[in-house]
């Protein structure tokens, strides 16, 4: 009941407040989780509530990402793929899932466990949601609710060139400051030190990569760059992976192409709901437009010096060495 849920959160708030803190570059510090990653206190509490209370089912599909690596895009593509109905007799333009995507932000359609579900001192009962439940999270692999791996449900990870990720993250943070600073230097230093919204970019990616290598049938590993270069091919791969491959008939009717188009940066960013609407994240309204900045590969030279880029590439090389992962 409500009282006991509030109690759960309150106890965790007290516990997390004892964890060491580090400056985040924003107005509150990050706390350090015993598993070695950082985030703000309320988000860490929500992660811990999710760990205790989220029970995955084998039919679930969970998107896992490091922030700013293509989460919004992947949510849109997955939602449209899983809930497509081909528009009944009316053709792909009448597809019910695509209509939803025009009316609602992808974060409303595929919520984050720790940012939207386990918030406001609530422990919602998700058991009555129809299968497949589509959910998302930024939680690092070591702290993921154990039932996700145990259930055998599908997990889809997407990552991105860390240089573009950093630039995107910095814009995202800077837009949230009362006075944008317009300088990437501090964000760069924190990023290189692994002090990012869910800890080190490299640790996050590597842990999910290793899980994918161990369990390729459970964990799909995608990159923003591959998705940009061949969106249709990657969409088909995604559909296949989640057990909803496009049939020959659907391909002939261009259902898959319609999804690619509806989820393109231009379509999503241009939708009225994403231009003017908001979504509640961590109990605060966030402008949907913040999730659509440029949507391109390789935009980093506009913001990072060559020295910064070299430093990041060096870290990437040393961290990923021997893992088989090449970005
Ligand atoms: P940029 O800041 O480089 O433009 P996330 O969704 O994980 O928060 O990542 C946000 C990044 O994805 C932003 O990158 C955003 O512009 C980009 N993005 C959002 N929707 C997209 C889409 N439909 N196609 C391509 N990129 C998209």
Automatic annotation (TrEMBL):
UniProt GO MF annotations: sulfotransferase activity
Q: What class of enzyme is it?
A: transferase
Keywords annotated in UniProt: Transferase
Please report a single Pfam family linked to this protein: Sulfotransfer_1
Q: What is its EC number?
A: 2.8.2.-
Q: Does the keyword Disulfide bond apply?
A: no
Specify the Sulfotransferase domain's residue ranges. 58-324
Family per record: Belongs to the sulfotransferase 1 family.
Q: State the protein's name.
A: Sulfotransferase
User: Which species is listed as the source?
Assistant: Oryza glaberrima (African rice)
**Could you read off the lineage of the organism from its UniProt record?**
Eukaryota, Viridiplantae, Streptophyta, Embryophyta, Tracheophyta
């Amino acid at each position: 009941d409500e009282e006991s849920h509030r109690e759960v959160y309150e106890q965790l708030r007290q516990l997390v407040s004892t964890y060491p803190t580090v400056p985040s570059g924003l107005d509150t510090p990050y706390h350090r989780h015993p598993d070695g990653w950082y985030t703000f206190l309320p988000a860490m509490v929500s992660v811990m509530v999710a760990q205790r209370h989220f029970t995955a089912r084998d039919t679930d599909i969970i998107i896992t990402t490091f922030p700013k690596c293509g989460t919004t895009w992947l949510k849109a593509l997955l939602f449209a793929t899983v809930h497509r109905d081909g528009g009944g007799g009316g053709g792909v333009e009448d597809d019910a899932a695509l209509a939803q995507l025009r009316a609602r932000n992808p974060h409303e359609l595929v919520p984050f466990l720790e940012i939207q579900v386990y918030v406001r001192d609530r422990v919602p009962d998700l058991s009555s949601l129809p299968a497949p439940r589509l959910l998302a999270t930024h939680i690092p692999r070591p702290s993921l609710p154990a039932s996700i791996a145990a259930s055998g449900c599908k997990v889809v990870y997407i990552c991105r060139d860390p240089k573009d990720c950093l630039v995107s993250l910095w814009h995202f943070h800077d837009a949230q400051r009362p006075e944008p600073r317009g300088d990437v230097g501090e964000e760069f230093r924190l990023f290189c030190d692994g002090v990012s919204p869910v800890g080190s970019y490299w640790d996050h990616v590597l842990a999910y990569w290793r899980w994918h290598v161990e369990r390729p049938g459970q964990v799909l590993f995608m990159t923003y760059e591959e998705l940009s270069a061949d969106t249709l091919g990657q969409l088909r791969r995604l559909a296949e992976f989640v057990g909803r491959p496009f049939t020959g008939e659907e391909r002939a009717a261009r259902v898959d192409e319609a999804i690619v188009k509806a989820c393109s940066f231009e379509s999503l960013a241009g939708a009225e709901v994403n231009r003017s609407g908001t979504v509640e994240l961590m109990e605060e309204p966030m402008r949907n437009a913040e999730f659509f900045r440029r949507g391109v590969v390789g935009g980093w030279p506009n913001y990072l010096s060559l020295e910064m880029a070299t430093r990041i590439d060096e870290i990437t090389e040393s961290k990923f060495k021997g893992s088989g992962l090449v970005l």
